[in-house]
Amino acid sequence: MQPANEAExxxxxxxxxxxxxxxxxxxxxxxxxxxxxxQTSGLTGIELYEPGALxxxxxxxxxxxxxxxxxxxxxxxxxxxxPDLRGLLGREGASTVGGVVAANASGxxxxxxxxxxxALLGVRFVDGTGAVIKNGGRVMKNVTGYDLVKLLxxxxxxxxxxxxxxxxxxxxxxxxxxxxxxxxxxQGLADLRRALGSPFDVSGAAYMSxxxxxxxxxxxxxxxxxxxxxxxxxxxxxxxDAAADWRQVRDVTPFAGRAGAVWRLVVKPSEAGRIAxxxxxxxxxxxxxxxxxxxxxxxxxxxxxxxxxxxHATLIRALPGMxxxxxxxxxxxxxxxxxxxxxAKFDPRGIFNAGGAA
Length: 358
Description:
Mean pLDDT: 92
Order of helices and strands: HEEEEHEHHHHEEHEEEHEEHEHEHEEHEH
CATH topology of the largest domain: Uridine Diphospho-n-acetylenolpyruvylglucosamine Reductase, domain 3
Strand content: 25-35%
Number of strands: 17
Shape: globular
Strand order of the largest sheet: 3-4-8-6-7
Radius of gyration: 21 Å
């Protein structure tokens, strides 16, 4: 099924007699849901773009590349730096903005500007009964009641099918500088935490392949000043790195095409080094250690036990023999009860997958 508009989407959901797998471009879904595929890539088009108001509204099936090209023409961008995981997951296709929202897909700049949900102004979606629901708008404002905008971001298609999304966008910076230092993981992660705790407005803090990296963005004079202050704070091993490629961090490129299970761990940054040291495999650290990508060859490795009390782990890509391993982390009883209540409210027939649109 590939509806061409919101009315057709609503009708398709209303008439569904079994489970539906929600799919945009098929580039980032990680769940194991089964059922008839409901493709949202027919709902395309940018409905409103006001560069002066930093606002963009697009139908959910609009290709991400189209949105980024329109923004780039006005020297603007989606601030949260959308990851492209096609290489990591071995996928083709074109990512859609609805899939980005459904996955709450957010890259290295999250440490500065927040996640996708923090740039989201409004949504329109179809619930499990076929009803069209609108929440939010085209400006940020405080309201009472359910914040469905935040709820839908990261819901992985479990609560409804997105038909339209509205974003606050950001101007591209005048200057970008990356500082890097060759160091071991404990020292590198400690330096990243110090930098993030400083007043120098870091927009990226990552460690991989023996190198710690810090990114600064903004007006040229401000970037120069902050870079100098950070180098003074962290010591002489830190130098400007013109060859730094943040897409390698954003897209987890070092793990693409390599055999092994891939886990995504969100943890307390202060615990990142300890957790990674206790897990056999190769790690990439983003968000100052708050995000760990782990590549491991051990299908029996109990990653969730290693992060207990310090975070949670999602299985992004499995090895043979891991069919019984849950993709998403288990929820505490109270959270599980809230989740069940929300799903019963928005998807009373239980037809939407819990595993992800893309």
